[in-house]
Amino acid sequence: MEGVATFLFIFYTDVFGINPAAVGLLFLIARFGDGITDVIMGIICDRTNSRYGKFRPWILWTALPLGIVLSLLFTSPDLSLMGKVIYAYTMYILLHLFTQPIIFHMVH
Length: 108
Description:
With 108 residues, the protein is an all-alpha fold. The protein is built from four helices and no strands.
């Protein structure tokens, strides 16, 4: 995940044209939000009981949305500067939401 963030910072500043301070703030906000949603996702995964286990359904359910978000993450739509910032925030936060089950499974 950190490798994606490294390339994403360069992409958002050099290709997308967003101010580096705005990108840094995006990463900071996403990390704080990630701390909250990690706990929520942990509770949800612990309460999941299926024939495939606790975590595998979440990994399978988020595989397709994760692929879509990863492809949209490095897409540069023709938007205004504010539109680009909103697009970047949305895609980066969605990336973190869809990768939580995978990362949580690896840690456990």
